[in-house]
Design brief:
This protein is α+β, with helices and mostly antiparallel strands and 333 residues long. Helix content is 35%, strand content 24%. The strands form five sheets. It has a five-stranded antiparallel beta sheet with strand order 7-6-8-16-17.
Length: 333
């Protein structure tokens, strides 16, 4: 989580009158310092998370081959993260064809790769300092240009990143590059800010010019992730959620949830997790009942696969970037 706001102690018996304008300036300054400094604290950990993210993504991409199952690739990625001294910032996702995101392997997942378009999306955390990056692999050899469009949009968007830039400008570059290549950006998916133990936070980084005049500040860490498709350029949830995240704390009555919730709180510290991870610790009946109850009660949020509405394939490219006068790509070796 971001650092707490700085505070000022003003003596009660102060002889001079401090104007409301000065106090307003102080408050704005402290807010600005908070925005700028959350990334600077533990910068080495942010950098390590980024470098490990790059290494593991390259490794994951190398595993995407015909005949491999989604489950074995996912588990190999998780094992490599552990071997390198990191933890997943969220469950690794291999989203196929028209699925843009949130397809996550389950223990009984028997999907075998053959000729799919595969998005590999993963994140690593070091003591809550996160990375988030993704790449697309074309096993059909039909979508080279589509992947190139997403990668080009990412590269040119990153060049726009610097303090003071409005996020709409980044989206404008992404949208124009993808459309000039004859495709559509996914307009209701976006990049996002990253905070300590926060995978998604402000600002939202659009994939088209949505008119958002929010400005980037020095020290922010953001994930930029263009999605390109020959389809309509919109997604909707479809399918069974396998990814969850705790979003609230409140009392719960049923014994299964009361047994599992403390584990979720301590093991995942507010970050997304998968049903498969819980099944390594608890029986299936308990896990499925608890997930239903905790989601219904608003303690957990569920994330179903995000499918392109016209059922067209989607390509993705993503990097984590530190906002400086010259952008710093953290997810590079």
């Amino acid at each position: 989580m971001p650092n707490a706001l700085y505070s000022v102690n003003i003596p009660v018996a102060i002889s001079c009158r401090i104007s409301s304008y000065f106090l307003k300036f102080c408050r704005l300054s402290f807010i600005y310092l908070n925005i700028c400094s959350y990334a600077m604290e533990d910068l080495e950990k942010w950098e390590k998370a980024g470098k490990l993210g790059a290494q593991v993504l390259d490794y994951g991409v190398s595993l995407v081959k015909p005949g491999k199952t989604v489950l074995e690739i996912t588990e190999a990625i998780e094992k490599r993260i552990d071997e390198l001294g990191g933890k997943p910032a969220f469950p690794p996702q291999l989203s196929l064809n028209a699925a843009a995101a949130h397809e996550c392997a389950d223990p009984d997942d028997n999907v075998v790769l053959s000729d799919q378009l595969v998005k590999v999306d993963l994140g690593i955390q070091i003591d809550g300092c996160l990375s988030d990056n993704a790449a697309t692999v074309d096993l059909s050899e039909k979508y080279k240009d589509l992947i190139s469009a997403a990668k080009e949009a990412l590269g040119l968007a990153i060049k726009e990143i610097k303090p003071g830039v409005e996020v709409r400008q980044i989206g404008k570059v992404i949208g124009e590059v993808i459309q000039l290549r004859g495709y559509e950006p996914i307009r209701n998916l976006s990049g996002h800010g990253l905070g300590k133990y926060e995978v998604h936070k402000s600002p939202s980084i659009p994939n088209y010019d949505n008119g958002d005049k929010t400005k980037l500040h020095k020290g922010m860490i953001i994930a930029v992730e263009p999605f390109a498709t020959p389809g309509d350029g919109m997604i909707s949830e479809k399918g069974i959620p396998r990814v969850f995240m705790q979003i609230d704390k409140k009392p719960i009555r049923d014994p299964f949830s009361r047994e599992i919730l403390p584990y979720i709180e301590s093991a995942y510290t507010g970050l997304p997790f998968s049903r498969r991870w819980l099944l390594k610790k608890f029986p299936k009946t308990k896990v499925d009942y608890a997930l239903r109850q905790l989601t219904t009660s608003g303690i957990l949020e569920s994330f179903a696969p995000l499918m392109e509405v016209s059922d067209k394939v989607v390509a993705q490219a993503e990097h984590t970037v530190l906002v400086e006068d010259e952008p710093v790509i953290l997810t590079k070796e």
